[in-house]
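Review form for a predicted model. The reviewer records the input and the model, then writes brief findings.
Reviewer: anonymous (R2)
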Amino acid sequence: MIGTIQRYFSPYFARGWFLHFFGGVNVGLSDATQNKTRVEAIRTLPNFITAIRTISCLAIFSIAGYTQDMSLNIVGLGIYWALDCLDGYLARRLEQETIVGAQFDILADRILIAYFYLNYLSITSGPVLIVSLFLLNFMVFDHYLSNQYLRWSIISPNYFYKIDRIVWALNWSAFGKFINTGPVTLLLLLTKSVIAPGVILILVLIIKGYSFYRLSKLVPPTVIEFD
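Model under review:
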Protein backbone atom coordinates (compact mmCIF):
# COMPACT_ATOMS: atom_id res chain seq x y z
CA MET A 1 0.00 0.00 0.00
CA ILE A 2 2.79 2.43 0.90
CA GLY A 3 4.53 1.60 -2.37
CA THR A 4 1.35 2.42 -4.29
CA ILE A 5 1.04 5.76 -2.52
CA GLN A 6 4.67 6.61 -3.21
CA ARG A 7 4.33 5.69 -6.91
CA TYR A 8 1.15 7.75 -7.19
CA PHE A 9 2.78 10.78 -5.62
CA SER A 10 6.16 10.24 -7.32
CA PRO A 11 5.93 13.45 -9.41
CA TYR A 12 5.40 15.43 -6.20
CA PHE A 13 8.24 13.64 -4.46
CA ALA A 14 10.47 14.42 -7.44
CA ARG A 15 9.61 18.12 -7.34
CA GLY A 16 9.93 18.22 -3.57
CA TRP A 17 6.45 19.69 -3.08
CA PHE A 18 5.07 16.72 -1.16
CA LEU A 19 8.06 16.57 1.17
CA HIS A 20 7.96 20.34 1.59
CA PHE A 21 4.39 20.15 2.84
CA PHE A 22 4.36 16.73 4.53
CA GLY A 23 8.06 16.05 5.00
CA GLY A 24 9.40 17.78 8.04
CA VAL A 25 12.55 16.42 9.53
CA ASN A 26 13.12 12.76 8.73
CA VAL A 27 14.20 10.93 11.85
CA GLY A 28 15.20 7.29 11.63
CA LEU A 29 16.15 4.77 14.25
CA SER A 30 19.75 5.91 14.17
CA ASP A 31 18.62 9.41 15.18
CA ALA A 32 16.17 8.26 17.83
CA THR A 33 18.55 8.72 20.73
CA GLN A 34 20.80 11.46 19.47
CA ASN A 35 20.94 14.46 21.74
CA LYS A 36 21.04 17.33 19.30
CA THR A 37 19.11 20.48 18.53
CA ARG A 38 16.89 20.23 15.48
CA VAL A 39 13.88 22.03 14.06
CA GLU A 40 10.88 19.73 13.81
CA ALA A 41 8.10 20.28 11.31
CA ILE A 42 4.46 20.05 12.27
CA ARG A 43 3.22 19.48 8.72
CA THR A 44 3.93 15.78 8.39
CA LEU A 45 1.62 13.13 6.97
CA PRO A 46 1.31 11.25 10.30
CA ASN A 47 0.40 14.50 12.10
CA PHE A 48 -2.17 15.22 9.40
CA ILE A 49 -3.75 11.81 10.00
CA THR A 50 -3.70 12.39 13.76
CA ALA A 51 -5.52 15.68 13.19
CA ILE A 52 -8.09 13.97 10.96
CA ARG A 53 -8.51 11.25 13.59
CA THR A 54 -9.05 13.80 16.33
CA ILE A 55 -11.51 16.00 14.43
CA SER A 56 -13.54 13.17 12.87
CA CYS A 57 -13.81 11.15 16.09
CA LEU A 58 -14.73 14.23 18.12
CA ALA A 59 -17.53 14.87 15.63
CA ILE A 60 -18.72 11.25 15.76
CA PHE A 61 -18.60 11.10 19.56
CA SER A 62 -20.46 14.41 19.78
CA ILE A 63 -23.26 13.12 17.56
CA ALA A 64 -23.32 9.80 19.42
CA GLY A 65 -23.63 11.60 22.75
CA TYR A 66 -26.33 13.95 21.48
CA THR A 67 -28.39 11.13 19.92
CA GLN A 68 -27.53 8.59 22.66
CA ASP A 69 -26.47 6.15 19.95
CA MET A 70 -24.10 3.51 21.34
CA SER A 71 -23.56 1.93 17.91
CA LEU A 72 -22.23 5.23 16.58
CA ASN A 73 -20.07 5.58 19.68
CA ILE A 74 -18.49 2.19 18.90
CA VAL A 75 -17.98 3.23 15.25
CA GLY A 76 -16.06 6.26 16.52
CA LEU A 77 -13.93 4.00 18.72
CA GLY A 78 -13.15 1.74 15.76
CA ILE A 79 -12.11 4.70 13.60
CA TYR A 80 -9.98 6.00 16.46
CA TRP A 81 -8.16 2.68 16.85
CA ALA A 82 -7.65 2.23 13.09
CA LEU A 83 -6.25 5.72 12.49
CA ASP A 84 -4.16 5.54 15.66
CA CYS A 85 -2.43 2.46 14.25
CA LEU A 86 -2.11 4.09 10.81
CA ASP A 87 -0.46 7.34 11.92
CA GLY A 88 2.07 5.47 14.04
CA TYR A 89 2.87 3.06 11.22
CA LEU A 90 3.32 5.86 8.69
CA ALA A 91 5.51 7.86 11.09
CA ARG A 92 7.91 4.93 11.32
CA ARG A 93 7.59 3.82 7.69
CA LEU A 94 8.18 7.32 6.25
CA GLU A 95 10.74 8.21 8.94
CA GLN A 96 8.65 11.18 10.06
CA GLU A 97 8.69 10.56 13.80
CA THR A 98 8.96 13.77 15.80
CA ILE A 99 8.65 14.79 19.43
CA VAL A 100 5.81 17.13 18.43
CA GLY A 101 4.02 14.26 16.72
CA ALA A 102 4.40 12.00 19.76
CA GLN A 103 2.97 14.68 22.04
CA PHE A 104 0.08 15.33 19.64
CA ASP A 105 -0.71 11.61 19.50
CA ILE A 106 -0.58 11.16 23.29
CA LEU A 107 -2.92 14.11 23.89
CA ALA A 108 -5.36 13.06 21.14
CA ASP A 109 -5.57 9.57 22.66
CA ARG A 110 -6.63 10.97 26.05
CA ILE A 111 -9.24 13.33 24.65
CA LEU A 112 -10.88 10.72 22.43
CA ILE A 113 -10.87 7.82 24.90
CA ALA A 114 -12.33 10.08 27.61
CA TYR A 115 -15.09 11.24 25.23
CA PHE A 116 -15.92 7.64 24.29
CA TYR A 117 -16.24 6.58 27.91
CA LEU A 118 -18.29 9.61 28.94
CA ASN A 119 -20.72 8.66 26.18
CA TYR A 120 -20.59 5.03 27.29
CA LEU A 121 -21.63 5.95 30.83
CA SER A 122 -24.32 8.34 29.62
CA ILE A 123 -25.86 5.88 27.16
CA THR A 124 -25.55 2.55 28.98
CA SER A 125 -25.36 3.54 32.67
CA GLY A 126 -22.35 1.22 32.81
CA PRO A 127 -20.12 0.48 35.80
CA VAL A 128 -19.04 3.91 37.02
CA LEU A 129 -16.30 2.58 39.31
CA ILE A 130 -14.59 0.54 36.58
CA VAL A 131 -14.75 3.41 34.08
CA SER A 132 -13.54 5.93 36.67
CA LEU A 133 -10.53 3.76 37.57
CA PHE A 134 -9.83 3.14 33.90
CA LEU A 135 -9.84 6.86 33.13
CA LEU A 136 -7.75 7.62 36.22
CA ASN A 137 -5.15 5.19 34.95
CA PHE A 138 -5.23 6.32 31.32
CA MET A 139 -5.61 10.07 31.86
CA VAL A 140 -3.20 10.40 34.80
CA PHE A 141 -0.88 7.44 35.42
CA ASP A 142 -0.35 6.35 31.82
CA HIS A 143 -0.22 9.95 30.63
CA TYR A 144 2.56 10.69 33.10
CA LEU A 145 4.49 7.58 32.09
CA SER A 146 4.05 8.31 28.39
CA ASN A 147 5.68 11.70 28.80
CA GLN A 148 8.75 10.43 30.64
CA TYR A 149 10.63 9.89 27.38
CA LEU A 150 11.11 13.66 27.29
CA ARG A 151 13.63 13.32 30.13
CA TRP A 152 15.94 11.45 27.77
CA SER A 153 17.07 12.20 24.23
CA ILE A 154 14.57 9.94 22.49
CA ILE A 155 11.79 10.87 20.10
CA SER A 156 8.88 8.92 21.56
CA PRO A 157 7.97 6.21 24.10
CA ASN A 158 8.44 3.68 21.27
CA TYR A 159 12.19 3.92 21.85
CA PHE A 160 12.11 3.63 25.63
CA TYR A 161 13.66 0.17 25.34
CA LYS A 162 16.95 2.04 24.95
CA ILE A 163 16.42 3.36 28.49
CA ASP A 164 14.65 0.46 30.25
CA ARG A 165 13.50 -2.58 28.29
CA ILE A 166 11.12 -3.85 30.98
CA VAL A 167 9.26 -0.54 31.31
CA TRP A 168 9.05 -0.36 27.52
CA ALA A 169 7.77 -3.94 27.20
CA LEU A 170 5.08 -3.37 29.83
CA ASN A 171 3.87 -0.06 28.41
CA TRP A 172 4.84 0.63 24.79
CA SER A 173 5.54 -2.69 23.11
CA ALA A 174 2.67 -4.12 21.02
CA PHE A 175 1.60 -6.11 24.09
CA GLY A 176 1.89 -3.11 26.41
CA LYS A 177 -0.14 -0.82 24.17
CA PHE A 178 -2.88 -3.39 23.69
CA ILE A 179 -3.30 -4.35 27.34
CA ASN A 180 -3.34 -0.69 28.36
CA THR A 181 -6.79 -0.02 26.87
CA GLY A 182 -7.93 -2.91 24.67
CA PRO A 183 -9.00 -5.75 27.02
CA VAL A 184 -10.95 -3.59 29.49
CA THR A 185 -12.83 -1.79 26.72
CA LEU A 186 -13.58 -4.93 24.71
CA LEU A 187 -14.74 -6.88 27.79
CA LEU A 188 -17.03 -4.06 28.88
CA LEU A 189 -18.60 -3.91 25.43
CA LEU A 190 -18.82 -7.66 24.76
CA THR A 191 -19.57 -9.24 28.14
CA LYS A 192 -21.45 -6.53 30.05
CA SER A 193 -19.60 -7.92 33.08
CA VAL A 194 -17.57 -5.98 35.63
CA ILE A 195 -15.57 -8.91 37.01
CA ALA A 196 -13.33 -9.67 34.01
CA PRO A 197 -12.66 -5.97 33.19
CA GLY A 198 -12.02 -5.36 36.88
CA VAL A 199 -9.41 -8.11 37.05
CA ILE A 200 -7.65 -6.79 33.93
CA LEU A 201 -7.78 -3.24 35.29
CA ILE A 202 -6.14 -4.32 38.55
CA LEU A 203 -3.40 -6.00 36.52
CA VAL A 204 -2.90 -2.81 34.49
CA LEU A 205 -2.69 -0.72 37.67
CA ILE A 206 -0.07 -3.12 39.08
CA ILE A 207 1.92 -2.74 35.85
CA LYS A 208 1.76 1.04 36.13
CA GLY A 209 2.83 0.93 39.77
CA TYR A 210 5.80 -1.29 38.93
CA SER A 211 6.70 1.01 36.04
CA PHE A 212 6.65 4.00 38.40
CA TYR A 213 8.96 2.10 40.75
CA ARG A 214 11.46 1.25 38.00
CA LEU A 215 11.40 4.82 36.70
CA SER A 216 12.15 6.14 40.17
CA LYS A 217 15.38 4.14 40.08
CA LEU A 218 16.51 5.57 36.76
CA VAL A 219 18.73 8.62 36.57
CA PRO A 220 18.04 10.92 33.63
CA PRO A 221 21.07 12.09 31.64
CA THR A 222 20.70 15.71 32.71
CA VAL A 223 19.28 17.25 35.85
CA ILE A 224 18.41 20.95 35.97
CA GLU A 225 19.06 22.55 39.33
CA PHE A 226 17.46 25.83 40.33
CA ASP A 227 19.05 28.19 42.82
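Findings: The CA atoms of residues 184 and 199 lie 9 Å apart.
Further findings: The longest helix spans residues 99-124.
Recommendation: see findings above.
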